[in-house]
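Hi U.,

Before I forget, here's the chain from the pilot set. I'm dumping it here mostly so it's searchable later in email.
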Amino acid sequence: MEKKAEMQKTMYDNAKSHFLGNFPDSLPIEQAYVHIGMYLGWVIETGLYSDFFEEEAAGQIFRFKRKEISCTILSEIWDGYLGFELFNREGNMFTYYYYGGGLYRADYDEVLVKSLPSIYHVTDSWENYEKMKQRINLRYQDWKKLTGN
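Structure:
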């Protein structure tokens, strides 16, 4: 029960914590939003968002699905915030496990960062988004098998 209560109040990520931290001076601030936006985009495409997010972001959801707004713009609209109220129950359970547990970051590094200087040097492109989407889909399917969801 304690873990469930902890999950219900979780903020998984916030761009502000990145650009106020070790963010490279040579990069535009928008780069702090890329990794968060890629995950939020996947959540939209998978339908794991909450009723609250659907009500507040209906236009953004529609435009993202049509690839009219990028991952960075999607994340910027939400101030780089990635918190529990954006996800439905299953979305929170998976995000708590995957994003909150550090596996997303490890996958992001392996799939996109590779030999780049940092997480912030990844280009916000649909090609990169598709690469991450494939990896997250695999993790999601594995998680579903593991948990019986």
